[in-house]
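RECORD TYPE: inverse folding
INPUT: structure tokens
STRUCTURE:
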């Protein structure tokens, strides 16, 4: 570091001030990320609904511990693991 006091001030790190364009770009990126997450969540919900409709159509609801219940529980466990793995 220089010994001159005026030169020492030149070495002090200054925070980066964002310009309006950088702020807009950051805001646009954040909105795109939020939209993407919302789209993914909606797609996942639709996939689960479709899956449940298929399971309900194939397996009657005869008992609490029947194959239908095991399949649905396994599917929900899988989707939970996938969603937690992405965070």
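DESIGNED SEQUENCE:
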């Amino acid at each position: 570091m220089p010994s001159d006091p005026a030169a020492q001030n030149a070495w002090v790190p200054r925070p980066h001030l964002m310009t309006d364009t950088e702020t807009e770009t950051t805001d646009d990126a954040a909105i795109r990320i939020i939209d993407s997450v919302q789209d993914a969540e909606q797609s996942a919900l639709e996939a689960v609904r479709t899956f449940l409709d298929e399971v309900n159509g194939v397996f009657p609801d005869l008992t609490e511990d029947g194959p239908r219940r095991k399949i649905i529980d396994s599917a929900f466990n899988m989707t939970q693991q996938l969603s937690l793995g992405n965070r």
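NOTES: The longest helix spans residues 20-58.
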